[in-house]
Amino acid sequence: MASTSSSRHDLVVRGRRIVTPDGTKPADIIIDEGRITALVPYRSCSGDPMIDAEDRVVLPGVIDSHVHVRDPGQTHKEDFASSSAAAAASGVTTIMCMPNTAPLLSDTEGFAATIEAARRSRVDFAVQALAHPGNLAEMAKLKELGVVSFEMFLAGNPDLLTCDRHDQMAIMREVAALDGVLGLYPGDPGIVAELTSNGPLDVDAIMRRQPSLLEAGALLQVLALAEEAGCRMHFRQMSSELSAVSVACARRRGLASRLTVEVTPHHLVLTTAEFRHHGAKGYIMPPLRETEDVDALWKSLGNGEIDAIGSDHAPHHDGEKADGAEDLSKCPPGFPGLETFLPVVLTEMRRRGFDENTFAAMASTNPARIFGLFPRKGVIAPGSDADLVVVEEDGEWPVSPSEFHSKAHYSPFAGYRARERAAMTLVRGTVVYDEGVLTGPENFGALVLPTRARVAA
């Protein structure tokens, strides 16, 4: 145990509600050189620089495992400066960057380009690489450089898709050989094409061409391949009751033992009603579902069938969304999600009877475990980075997209009344956000590399 009086420490964070692996308890968190060196009894430290959280909850910093930074190459939509500012302002201390940039993060040159762009990040970041038949020979090099996952696209941009089953199996075998994680959202462009009708694309047309039946059916097919390949698969953006039932059934039967599951804040909270109301600003893939799907996802979360929450932060320029006002085919799917992640999800968790420990597991600890960042990240414990968020609960804060730090100033959460918010964010013991003000240097963020031995969530 650290000394309580004779030693001088860099910082002490004190609070009556510190969320630790042993539950929420009063404690003093001692921080030296960016790491937590000890948790000691509440009010046992004196004489050190102090942040007193009092009765506010202190959580491990959020690890957002699904962020489209758009940098390099699409910086009119977003960049590392704006996305990391959005992260810091909402308690996200590590962002995990998706590879659909320009250049693509599919080889060593793409990796280097992303690292160069990330020099402007205010928060820590990890890198996810593309998995495609064209870069199989590059994947071992990327793994050595420190990517935390490989992402195989089965839906979305046609230039990134891997539709051939032989190619999918080859990628899965390579990821398995590298002891990697394969992230994917299951889809089937052929079925979508058959379900597509002529004319302007509206909400009803989107729902017809992207039914929950398609998501669940495509999931089972790729699960069969992943099981045969021995590949760890991370199912992203699970959105439907049918998929939740399929995951539960697969696990009960001993199938897909290497499967982990992610859900987004918008699929936990919003429904087709919000899609209809917001139109293009609520257009995302998979689309927002029905109330029954939302309730099923919460049930699945409570049953332990969901492992993590990731925002799928996917901003586009405001003008691009405006182009889809009358025809959704004229605008890209996606909207910003970093700044609504913690306030919306934690508010909904409280409303549905979950506590802050569940939030910490879903938003911090489990993502760190799944992607090999644990125990450096994802937990308030000795030896871990001092990534912390102090949460204010005494109030109500309507979501106001005009105030976002993201370059995208729209959201289907507009007007949502959150009862939780990040009051202060610390990355490696440095305050990067404090009561509405971004603090510290723009380039404070650092690359986070996975540990070689991952711990299952």
Determine the mean pLDDT: 95
CATH class bucket of the domain at 60-370: Alpha Beta
Number of strands: 19
First-residue to last-residue Cα separation: 28 Å
Tell me the overall shape.
Answer: globular
CATH superfamily of the domain at 60-370: Metal-dependent hydrolases
Low-confidence residue ranges? 1-6, 453-457
Keywords:
457 residues; alpha/beta; TIM Barrel; nine-stranded mixed sheet; eight-stranded parallel sheet; globular; disordered C terminus
Report on the structure:
- β6 (62-67), α1 and β7 (92-97) form a beta-alpha-beta unit.
- This protein has 457 residues and is an alpha/beta fold.
- It has helices spanning 80-88, 108-117, 139-145, 165-177, 189-195, 203-209, 212-229, 241-252, 265-269, 272-278, 291-302, 318-322, 338-351, 356-370, and strands at 11-20, 23-32, 35-40, 50-52, 57-60, 62-67, 92-97, 124-130, 149-151, 181-184, 232-235, 259-263, 308-309, 388-392, 397-398, 417-418, 421-427, 430-434, 437-438.
- The protein is globular and about 70 Å long.
- α4 packs across α7, α7 (212-229) packs parallel to α8 (241-252) and α8 runs parallel beside α11.
- The chain has 14 helices and 19 strands.
- 31% of the residues lie in helices and 20% in strands.
